[in-house]
Amino acid sequence: MSYVNGGRRGDAATRWIRGALAVVYLALAVSNFLILAGPARTVMTVLDSVTALLMGIAAMSRKPGRRGEYLAFLPIIDSVAQVAVTGSLQYSTTLMLTLLGVGAAVTSRRIFAASALTGVGGWALTVGLEEHLRGPETGYYSVQVAFAAMLGALMHEALRRRQRALKRAHEKVTTVAERFERLFNASPAGVAIADGTGRVVAANPAFCELAGRPEDEVLGADVGPFLTEGEQRMVRPDGSVRWAYTTVATSEAGGRPWTLLQMQDVTDRHLAEQEARDSHRLLAAVAAAARRIRTGEDARATIIAAIRDLAAADNVTLLEASADPGGRTLPGPAREVVVTDADGADVIGTRVPLDGTSMIARVWAGGEPIFLADPASDPRVSAALLKMVDGRSMLWQPVIVDGAVTAVLAVGWRRRVETVSDYRTRAVALLADETALALEHERLLRRLERMAFTDTLTALPNRRAWQEAMDRMVAEAGRTGEPLTVAIADLDHFKRYNDTYGHAAGDELLQRAAAALVAGMRDEDFLARWGGEEFMFALPGTATDDAVTVLDRMRAAMPDAQTCSIGVATWDTRESIAQLLQRADDALYTAKHDGRDRVHASVRALRTFRSPAA
Question: What sequence ranges are listed for the domain PAC (predicted)?
C-alpha cells in the first residue's frame, strides 16, 4: 500500500503489511468484545471487524493499487471512534500508535497528511463535544497526540527518502545490467559464463559461432572442453577446425563459484600473430611495471620476472652501483656493482668490481648491449659468474638514465642459444628502459623522503623527523623502563652575529655548529635542528647527570669561540612529550638568564626508573 513518486513498493511487502494489520485489528475486535460492555462493545467490535475484513481483502489482492493507500483512514477512524464510544481518554494511546503505524506504512504524502489530520481533528472534535472528556488529563493527551502525529510525519518522510534512494540504486543497477548485457552480446570475442557445476549458463553469439552450435545447445553444456587457457584447437560439430585464444577467470558471488571464459578466434592469424601475442605479453609486463612504479612499489622483481618470461631465459640478474647504508649512491664514478635482485639464480648481494676488463665492466663503460652464444670461451666473462648462474649463453643489457649507465641486466640461458631474436632484443631493451624509469623514480622518492625529514641548511633531521623519533623513543623508554633525556641548545647572541657578519656567515656558523654537535654525539643519540639557532637532542638510556656531562662536552666544542646554552629535562614516564619539551625549554631559559654558555638541568623531581624485570 505504498508509493514513492509514482513508483510502487514491492507487491509482496504491501500485501504482507495489510495482512499484518488485518490480524492486529482482528485481535482488537476480539479484545474489545471481551473487555468492553454495552453499546461500546458492539460498536468497536463491528468497527474492528470491518477494518480487519477490508485489510484482509486488500492483502489478498494480487495488484495492490494506489487506492489501497486510502485504507490508512480505517485504523484512524477506528481509533477516534474508540475514544468517542468508550468515553475514555486512555484509548487515545491507540490513536497515537495508529498515527505512528500510518506514518511508517503509507508513502503518499497527501494521504498521510489527510489521514493524520483526520485523526488529530477527529480526536479534538470528540474531546470538544464530550464534556466529560475535558479534564485535568486532556492537556496531557493533547500534547501526546500532537507529538505522535509529528513523529509519524518524521517516520513518513524518512521512509520516503529511503525509498527514493532505493529506487535510484535499483535504476542504477538496472542500467548497469542492461549495458553489460548489450556489451556481452555485442562483444566480438566469445564470452561464456559457467556455474559451480561446470555447466554453461550464459553465452554470447560470438561464443556460439566459435563453438559451431546454436545457443540452446551451448546452454547447459559441459564447460570442461573449453577450459584450456591460451591457444587451443577446436573441432566443431561439422568437422571444421578453429583456433581460439582462451582466458579463464574464476570468482565467487552469492556464495557460489563462477567461471568466466573469453575466447578470441585467431584461426586466420594463428601463425602470423604469434609475435603480436608476444608483444601483448610485453605490453602487459610494461603496464605491470608502470603500475608498481606509479604506486611507489619496488618494480625490480616484476621487471626481471617479465624479462625472464619474454626472453625464455633461465635467469635474470640486476646489478646496480653500490650504495651507502641509507640507499644513496656513493659519490663519484662507480667502482663496483652489486646484485640487487635476481630471478632464477641465488646471487643477490654478489659484488662485481668495475676496475677490470670483465664483460659487466665493458657494458657499464660502453653503454651497449652484448650477447654471447658461448660466453665460456670469452676470457672477459667471469668463470665464477657463469658457474653461479649456470649460463651457457648470456646477454648483458645496460640500464641508462640521462645518458649514463646506472645498472646492468644480465640474462642467462642454461642451454645454448645461437642468436637472440629481434623480439627478444626489443623486449629486454624495452624493459631495461622500464628498469631505468623504476630506478630513477625510486631515487627521486628517496630524495623527496630525505628532503621531507632533513633540514636543508645543516643536513640534520628537521622538526618532523624529531617528532617521529620522539614518539618512537618515548614508547621504547616506557616499555623498557630506561631513562630518556632531551635537551634544547641555543646559540648565544646569534642575532648579533648575523647583524655583524651577515646572514651568509650566520648560515655558515650554523653549519659548523651542527657538524661540531654531530661529532660529539654518541651512536645512540639523536640530534635535529628545531629552527633558527635552536637544536634538539634526545639521549635514550641516559639519566640527567650523564646527559649533562655529554652535553657539556658538546657545548665546549662550539666553533669560532661561539657559545651556546643548553636546557636539559629527563622524562618522568608520566608527562606528555609537549610537557617534557616545555621543561627543557624552561631550563634553557634559566641557562640564558644565568649568564649563557652553560648547561642547566630541570630540577623537577623525577620518578625512579626501573627495568621491566624489576
Answer: 228-278
Beta bridge partners of 258: 251
pLDDT band at 9 (very low <50, low <70, confident <90, very high): very low
H or E stretch covering 406: strand 404-413
> 187-271 has which CATH code?
3.30.450.20
- What type of residue sits at position 600? H
Which residue do the cell numbers 627478444 mark? 424
In the block, which residue shows the cell 542492461? 178
- pLDDT tens-digit series, residues 189-237: 888 888 888 888 888 888 888 888 888 888 888 888 887 888 888 888 8
> Strand 241-253 relative to strand 351-353: parallel, antiparallel, unpaired?
unpaired
Is 275 catalytic? The answer is no
* Nearest of 26, 159, 45 to residue 101 by alpha carbon: 159
Cβ proximity of 54 and 71 under 8 Å: yes
Q: What number of CA atoms fall less than 13 Å from residue 86's CA on the CB side? A: 21
Beta bridge partners of 411: 316, 395
Give this prediction's pTM. Answer: 0.36
CATH of 298-451, one of 3.30.1490.190, 3.90.1150.10, 3.30.70.1150, 3.30.450.40: 3.30.450.40
Residue in this structure with the C-alpha cell 653549519, named with its chain if needed: 511
Name the nearest CA neighbour of 71 among 120, 22, 26, 4. Answer: 22
CA 404 vs. chain centroid, Å, equals 37
Pairing of strands 370-372, 351-353: unpaired
pLDDT at 611: 33
Q: What is the pLDDT of residues 287-337, one digit of tens each?
A: 665 565 555 566 677 777 877 777 778 888 888 887 654 445 555 567 788
Domain boundaries, the chain: 8-161, 187-271, 298-451, 454-601
Mean predicted lDDT score pLDDT of the chain: 79
Q: Per the residue annotation, which of 171, 209, 533, 534 is the catalytic one?
A: 533
Helix (H, G, I), strand (E, B), or coil: what is residue 391?
Answer: coil
Measured between alpha carbons, how far is residue 279 from residues 54, 427, 436, 554 in Å? 73, 8, 20, 63
**Nearest-angstrom CA–CA distance, 179 and 87:** 63
- With H, G, I as helix, E, B as strand and everything else as coil, classify residue 8: strand
